Amino acid sequence: MTRTVPAPLPPDLFDPDCPVPTVPVLGGKKWAWRILRCLEGGPRRFSELRVPLVGITAKVLTESLRSMEQDGVLERTEFAENPPRVEYALTPLGRTLLGPMDAVCDWSRANLAELLAAREAFELAER
Amino acid sequence: MTRTVPAPLPPDLFDPDCPVPTVPVLGGKKWAWRILRCLEGGPRRFSELRVPLVGITAKVLTESLRSMEQDGVLERTEFAENPPRVEYALTPLGRTLLGPMDAVCDWSRANLAELLAAREAFELAER
DNA sequence: CCGTATCCTACAGGATACTG
DNA sequence: CAGTATCCTGTAGGATACGG
């Protein structure tokens, strides 16, 4: 009788048609998660978002917000005032993302030290 | 008395020195999460990984594996055989990543339809 | 205040060929 | 089998200037 080997990995383990890997909100965008976090406590204005998002340019913030709006995780509201006012708020869909996002953030906080230590050890081992 | 407004976002909401955003395993790498998933069931060989990771080149797979090894989430073991054999396996640290990863994947599965619908609605609204 | 319009750069990722 | 070595390209992201 042959020895039991682990099942080989199926070639179709990942659906090539699945658009999830390309969903920007899932990591493709540098700022998306932070923006989500900024909106956690309620709607925020464009200029308000620029404060904690240190270094972001208007162009990139606009692009990020548009992309997330397109994905339905946030909503853009323009008020017909002068000077103009625009508010961004999480949609219910966007709000459901906070849970998984927290899971990842918690992991980072809990394991950052170990990860950095691993990096150092790796560099030492290279010489 | 003034009306209560939401607290302004603090400028230091995100630590500029925090290396988490640059941690490749957290989304910066296109293939990292899939590789993690491939190793979930036990150690795998280089060529074995190439099967489900359709379209990945040897160079990119090597780079991804090295980067993840450096971060301490997987371990590379070289056997002194001929032909050569190399196995990649999750470390305990890497295994702790599976939980948060599942949370995100579950979210994707549960909300993909809604997200795609939002994209379509957005495109329609643009015209 | 809230963007848009250009231009530019860095780097992840890929194509192809070759090697211990 | 498990990679390196080159070369190349696409695009996210940034700098700067201007517009409604």
From TrEMBL, chains A, B:
The keyword Transmembrane helix does not apply. SUPFAM superfamilies: Winged helix' DNA-binding domain. Keywords: DNA-binding, Transcription, Transcription regulation. It comes from the Bacteria. The keyword Chaperone does not apply. PROSITE patterns: HTH_HXLR (PS51118). Residues 18-116 form the HTH hxlR-type domain. Gene3D superfamilies: Winged helix-like DNA-binding domain superfamily/Winged helix DNA-binding domain. This is Helix-turn-helix transcriptional regulator. It comes from Kitasatospora purpeofusca.
